[in-house]
Amino acid sequence: MPKVTIDGVEVTVEPGTNLIEAAYKAGKTIPHFCYHPKLSIAGNCRMCMVEIEGGRRPEVACNTPVRDGMVVHTDTERVRKLRKAVLEFLFLNHPLDCPICDKAGECKLQDYYLEHGKYVSRLQEGKVRKPKRLDIGKHVILDAERCVLCSRCVRFCDEVTRTGELRIFERGAHCNIGIHPDARLDNRYSICVTDICPVGALTCKEFRFQSRVWYLEQTPTICGACANGCNIVAYHYRGEIRRFMPRRNDAVNDTWMCDDGRLSFTATQQHDRLLEPRYSGLETGEREITTVVEQVAKRIAAVRSRHGDRAVGFVLSPRASLEENHLIARVASAVGASLFMVGGNPAGSPEDDDDGFLIRADKNPNTRGADLVARRAGASSPAALVAALEAGTVRALVCFNNDVVGKAVGSGVPATRFDELEFFVAISAHVDATVEKADMAVPLATYLESDGTWVNHAGLVQRYRRVVVPPEGVLQGWELLPALARALGAEMETWSPARVFQSLAGEMPELAGLSHGVLGDIGSLLIAATPPEVAGSS
Amino acid sequence: MEGYRILKHNWTIPSAWDIDVYRKQCTFGYETARKVVTTMEPSAVRETVKQAGLRGRGGAGFPAGVKWGFVPKNASKPTYLINNADEGEPGTFKDRYIMERDPHQMIEGMIIAGFALQAPQAYIYIRGELGLAARRVQNAIDQAYAAGFLGKGIFGTGYSLEMTVHRGAGAYVCGEETGLISSIEGKKGNPRLKPPFPAVVGAFGAPSIVNNTETLTSIPYILEHGVEAYRTFGTEKSPGTKLFTVSGHVEKPGVYELPLGFPLKKLLYDVCGGIRGGHKLKAVIPGGSSAPVLTADEAERANLDYESLMEVGSMLGSGGVIVMDDTTDMVWALKNLTHFYAHESCGQCTPCREGTRWLDDIVTRFYENRATEEDFDRLLDICDSMSGTTICALSDAAVFPVKSFITKFRDEFEKHTVHGTGG
Ligand SMILES: Cc1cc2nc3c(=O)[nH]c(=O)nc-3n(C[C@H](O)[C@H](O)[C@H](O)COP(=O)(O)O)c2cc1C
Ligand code: SF4
Ligand code: SF4
Ligand code: SF4
Q: In this structure, what are the phi and psi dihedrals at residue B391, rounded to the nearest 5 degrees?
C-alpha cells in the first residue's frame, strides 16, 4: 500500500486514494467546494490545489491519486495564495446575502473566507445578476447568484438519482445553474442537493427561514420511516426538531436519504400525538401515568382471573426497538400470556414502494429485529391471532406501538376481529385506528424521544438516540413495560436500553458480542447464527 | 517558394476539391494512402511519422507520432481519430483553407493516420462558422466513399474506416481537445480533467487521438517522400513546413507555407510586402491570439519555429501572425482580446470563469481612462492566479496577452490611467 507524506505526516492508504482523502488520514483538511466523496471528480472549483514535490506546478488534490513516496505540501505560500485567489474570484459575483441566507453558519464560502481568505476587497465593477428565488421543485428553491458552480447538484442528479434535472447553462461569468423550463426537481431524493450544495444556492422549502443553524443542536440517530434505516443527524432547538440531514454510513445510505424520510419528523413530532391516556370514565387524578398503568393491570388481571393467563395476549411490533420487543416478550412470559407478532406496513403506506436504492417497501424500521425476538420467544403468527380471536381464546390484547387495527389488511387480521375483545389496550405515540378502537390508550414516547436499536432490512443493527425529551407525563417504552410488568405482579427491574440490550445479546447468538457501545454510530451486522450442532457429531 | 509546398501544393489547381481533379492532377491523389494501406504495417506508419518529427499544428506542438504511441496496447474499445478543424484561435485561418481548397489531401492524411491507429471511425470537427469548408469536406467524404477509399474494406483490404463530420456551434473552447470530445458526445463543450488523457479515455470512453487539420494534412507527404525528404525542411527540432496566416497591417496578408525556422522579419518584409502604407511595425503576435505579443525589435530577431519563439518569450502556437503597425492602440487591441477570452471561457474553473471577466473589466477601465496605477499590479496578480491553475489552457491563453501587452507596452497603458490623462 502506498505511503505518502502530507505536511510531514506519513500515512499509508489504499492505492487509488486521492489526496483529499489521504490528507484526512494525516489529520489535514484540504479545502474544497466541488469534491464530494460519493460523486465523480469534477475538479472545477480549483480550491484544493496542493504542491507535490517534483511537480511542475500545483495540482488539484481531488484528481491526484496517491503514489508511493509522494511528498505533498498543503500549506505553502503558493497554495495559500491560490486558495485566497479562488475565494476572491468566487466573491466577485457573489451576492453576500448572508443575513437572509439559510446556509449562513454552515456555508463553505463563509468558513473558508475566515480560514483562507481575509483579503481587502479589490472589486470595483458591478456584479453579474442571476435569477433568485426560483421554485424548481416540490421541496427546493434555487438562488443562482449564490451558486459557486461546483456542479455537485448536477452530478448528484446525473449519477445518484440518474434523473438529470439540473444543468449549468451559458458560459463564462454568465454560467448559471438551472433547470429545463419544462422540468421540475421532483425526484424522491431532491432535498439531498441542499445538503451537498456548499453554499445557499439550493435550499429546502421546509427549512427556509426556520432557524439560524448555529442555534441548532445535533444528535446522530436513524431515520425510522422505512426498513433501510438511513443514518441521520437530527437538528433540534429547544426540544423541537427542525430538520433531518443524512449522516454518512457507507453500509447503509452513503451520504443520502429520501425526501419522505427526511420530512417524516414533522409527522413524528406533531401529527396526532397521543399525549394523554384515553379511556371511558377517565378521572382527572388518573392521568398520572403510574395510575394509568395500574388501571391497565387491574383490567388485565380481571380477564386473567376469568379466562386464565393465556387469554391475555401481547403483540410484538416491527416499529418498536429490539429492547422494547424483548421487554414485551418478557412481560408476556412473566405473566404466562400469549405472544403474537403482527408485521405489515402502517395504514396508508404505498404498496410495493421499493426503488432498489434506499427506499424500501417495508415501512417499518425493525421488522427483522422484531422477527428475531418473535422467533426467540416463540411468538405466534397473525393467523394464529385471528384464530385465537375467533375462538375467543384471547380475551385481552396489549398492542405496543403497533396499529394492528389501522393496517388490518396488510397484517392479515381483519379489523372487526378486535370487537370481540373484553379488553383492548393500545400503547402508542399517536392517535391511530388502534387507539380509537381500544378500551384504553396509553401515551408513549416516539423513537426520537427514546433510545434503542433496530435491525435494518440488510441485518445491520443500529442505534437510534434520544433527540428530544418526551412530552410531560409520557414514558419511554423501556420505562413503561417494566412498570406494567410489576403492576401485573411480575418481578422486573427498570433497566436502561443499553442494559436491556446486554441481556438480549446474552440470549441471542445473532447479537453475540454486540452492545450499544460496540454498535456506536455506524452499527454492526447481525452475527450469522451458527447452525445447530448435529447430535453426536463431537 | 514552390519547394515549400507540402500543404499548399494543390491550392492553385482549380477544383482540387473534386476527387477526379485530385486523383488526376494533384499530388498524392489517394495513391499514397493506397500504398500505405495495402503494403505497410500500421506500426511502421506510426514509426515513420515519429521519425519525421511532425509536431502538432494545433498550438501545443506535441509530436504526433509520440501522441499516437499513448494509445493503450490492449484497449477494450476501438480507437477514434479526431480531426480538430474547429480553428477558433483569433488570427488563424489555415485549416479553413485546407478544407476549402484541398479537402482530399486532408482526408488522405486521415486515412493514413486512421490506418496507423487501426481506428474504425474518424471524426472531423469543423468550426460552425465555416460553411463552405464543411460542405467541401462532406462532398469530398462522399466522393471518397463512392471511390472505395472510405467505408468497408478500403482499397480492397481488410481495413475499414468510417468518417463523420461534426459541426461546432461557435465556441472557441470546443477546439480544446477534451472540450471537443464533450461536444462530439453531444454534451456542452466543457473541457475535461486530465488525466485521463484522450489517448487513453477519449470520445465515448474510448482511446481517441485528436490532431489538428494541418497536422493530418502533412502526413501524406511524409509517407510518400519519406522522413529524410520531410526533414530537409525546417529545423532539427521543428522539422517540416507550416502554414502561417498573416493578418493585420502588412501589404499582403494571407496564408503562407514556410519551412519552420523561417525568419519572421523575412515573412513580414519579403513575403508579405512589408508594413502597409509605409508605416512602422509596432508589435506582432506570432502564433494566434494566445501567444504573447512581441515588440518590433523582438519580432525582427525571431525565427518561426517552436524553440526560437520560446526563446523570445512567445510561442509558435497556431501560426496566426497578427501584425500591428504604429497606428495601433495597444489598449484597444488588448481590450479586444480580453473580451474574447471572457466571452469564450466555458466557465467551469473558478479562476478562468471569474478571472477572464475581471481582466476584461480592468482592461476596459484602462480603455475608458478610468484605471489607476494599482491596476497594473492587480492585473499581474490576477494573471498569476490564473496561470497553470485550471482544467484547460484557455485560462493561460487569456493571461499571455495581458501580461505581455501591459509589460511591453506599459507606457501606452500609463497614458490611459486617471493620472496619465490628467483626469
Ligand atoms: C482554448 C483552446 C482552444 C483550442 N483550439 C484549437 C483549435 O481550434 N484547433 C486545434 O487544432 N487545436 C486547438 N487547441 C489545441 C487542442 O487542444 C489540441 O492540442 C490539438 O488539437 C492537438 O492537435 P495537434 O497535436 O495536431 O496540434 C486548442 C486548445 C485550447 C486550450
Ligand atoms: S451562500 Fe449564503 S451564507 Fe454563504 S456567503 Fe453566500 S449568502 Fe452568505
Ligand atoms: S447550486 Fe450549489 S451544488 Fe449546485 S452547482 Fe451551485 S453551488 Fe454547486
Ligand atoms: S480553463 Fe476556462 S475554458 Fe478551460 S475548462 Fe477551465 S473554465 Fe473552461
A: -70, -45
Check which CATH number belongs to the domain holding A345 and give it. 3.40.50.740
Calculate how close chain B gets to A151, using CA atoms only, in Å.
Answer: 9
* Residue A177, domain member (yes or no): yes
DSSP E strands, B296-352: 303-304, 320-325
Which residues in chain A touch residue B168, judged by CB atoms under 8 angstroms apart?
Answer: none
B35: closest CA of chain A, how far (Å): 44
How far, in Å, is the centroid of ligand 3 from the Cα of B344? 22
* ipTM for this model: 0.94
List, for residues A276-304, the tens digit of each pLDDT value.
Answer: 999 887 777 778 888 999 999 999 999 99
Residue type, B19: I
Q: Is the CB of A111 under 6 A from ligand 2?
A: no
Q: Is A81 a domain residue? A: no
Residues 173 through 192 of chain B touching chain A, CB cutoff 8 Å: 173, 188
Chain A residues closer than 8 Å to B351 by CB: 46, 85-86, 89
Exposure string over A494-522, b if 16+ CB within 10 A, otherwise e: ebebbebbbebbeebebbeebebeebeeb
In a domain, A15, yes or no: yes
> Is the CB of A173 less than 8 angstroms away from the CB of B353?
yes
| A264 & A296 share domain | no
- Tens digits of residue pLDDT in B299-334: 999 999 999 999 999 999 999 999 999 999 999 999
Task: Report how far residue A305's alpha carbon sits from residue A65's, in angstroms, rounded to the nearest whole number.
Answer: 74
The domain total for chain A is 3
Q: Is A44's CB within 8 Å of B350's CB?
A: yes
- Look at ligand 4, atom 4, and give the residue with the nearest C-alpha: B392
pLDDT of residue A403: 94
Which CATH number applies to B19-231? 3.40.50.11540
What pLDDT digit, counting tens, does each position of B189-215 carry?
A: 999 999 999 999 999 999 999 999 999
What's the mean per-residue pLDDT of chain A? Answer: 94
* pLDDT tens string B334-373: 999 999 999 999 999 999 999 999 999 999 999 999 999 9
The answer, for B222 touching chain A at a CB cutoff of 8 Å, is: no
Residues A295 and A379 in one domain: yes
Q: Which domain holds residue A391?
A: 278-525
Best probe of the B interface among A88, A108, A116, A177, by most B CBs < 10 A, is: A88
* DSSP track, A438-486: -SEEEEB--GGGS-EEEE-TTSEEEEE---SPPPTT-B-HHHHHHHHHH
For the segment B56-84, the average pLDDT, to the nearest whole number, is 96
Q: Among the CATH numbers 3.10.20.600, 3.40.50.300, 3.40.50.12710, 3.90.1150.10, which is that of B241-325? A: 3.10.20.600
Q: Kindly report, residue by residue over A40-95, the tens digit of the pLDDT.
A: 999 999 999 999 999 999 999 999 999 999 999 999 999 999 999 999 999 999 99
Long-range contacts of A481-484 (CB under 8 A, 24+ apart): A481/A324, A481/A327, A481/A328, A481/A330, A481/A331, A481/A400, A482/A327, A482/A331, A483/A290, A483/A293, A484/A293, A484/A296, A484/A297, A484/A331, A484/A398
Backbone angles phi, psi at A421, to 5 degrees: -65, 145
If asked whether residues A136 and A236 sit together in one domain, one would say yes
Q: Where are the domains of chain B?
A: 19-231, 241-325, 330-414
The pTM score is 0.94
List A residues 57-86 in contact with B (Cβ-Cβ < 8 A): 57-58, 60, 63, 81-82, 85-86
| Per-residue pLDDT tens digits for A143-190 | 999 999 999 999 999 999 999 999 999 999 999 999 988 899 999 999
Find the CB nearest A172 among B342, B388, B389.
B342
Residue range B330-414 in CATH 1.25.40.10: no
In the predicted model, is pLDDT for residue A348 greater than 90?
no
Establish if B420 touches chain A: CB-CB under 8 angstroms.
no
- B361 part of contact set with chain A, CB < 8 Å: yes
Together in a domain, A351 and A466: yes
Which ligand neighbours the alpha carbon of B320 most closely? 1
Closest ligand 2 atom to residue A103 Cα is 3
